[in-house]
Design a protein that fits this description.
alpha+beta; Butyryl-CoA Dehydrogenase, subunit A, domain 3; 2 domains; two-stranded antiparallel sheet; 9 helices; AcylCoA_DH/ox_N; FAD; Acyl-CoA dehydrogenase; AcylCoA_DH/oxidase_NM_dom_sf
Length: about 350
Amino acid sequence: MDTDQGYDHAVWRQMANELGLHGIAVPERWGGAGAGMPELAVVFEEMGAALLCSPFFATVALALQALLDSGDEPAIEELAPDLLDGSRVATLILNGTLDAWDPGAVTIAAHRDGGANYRLSGDAALVLDGHTADIILVAANSADGVSLFAVDATADGLVREPLSTLDRTRKVARLRFDGVTGRLIGTDGQAAAGLARTSDLALVALASEQLGAAQRCLDTAVAYAKERIQFGRAIGSFQAIKHRCADMLVLVEGARSAVFHASETTDDGERAVAASVAKLACSEALLQISLDSMRIHGGIGFTWEHDAHLYVRRAKATELMFGGPDHHLARLAELIPTSHQQPEGSL
């Protein structure tokens, strides 16, 4: 996490080539394993548990998924192989920040340059792994509406600035587009529906990460409570610690149920509800459990010699990514009445 790149290239290649993690949820016709979100969620859960420093989320959950959801087969055939084998890193700019997907909040503009190419202009304040990505997929407003474009990291007019953030295990950058050449992915003006689906799947992936981190915090807190001796006995024998650990377990199991349901849901409308529920449950669980774990560890939990505070940092950062609790509560208030309408005449 202290390097400029933010990840280990050897581990990245091993993940892609030896373990095949990048292509788990990619259809076999594109070179993947043909599995789905339930299998990929397990991967993200373990990555969250380890606080893995890697552009995996940006490449797989965002860019690769957006590419698949675009339906642009020539673009998938050209770009997907390099993402699957780990030779290139990618990211996705939804709305220039890490807020929830909103087609009305897109900050990048796209204009035709007189030919088949488009020129992108505008600022993206927060982009996951934006300074190391080789391919940047960008949601931008063209004359026909929200469209998706692919930008090469070496393109003229692109300025990338790494940022210092609370969660040092995940890199973020500011990107500026000044007439940058972009390749249209999919149909001009028709990207909003695919990006909405990508956004919901990214929420499930992020919730899976949060679940893994919460479980690891619980496990380390319980292990420490068994071995830390105070007043002649293990602190885990004190009722206050027992109750706190029990509350942590309840939060973890609730979060696990939400993630399991969201990852298994295939209908886009139901997934939107399940994804917001999972994000809410897992954000609450990780924040509370990481704080409780740090407190149970006592003085050592607040120091750089222990990892406990890193989980608190991850909890605070991911709580706000792609919409905080207030956003998803409001979203559920809008979605649930339309997705759970009762038959006419029923009580």
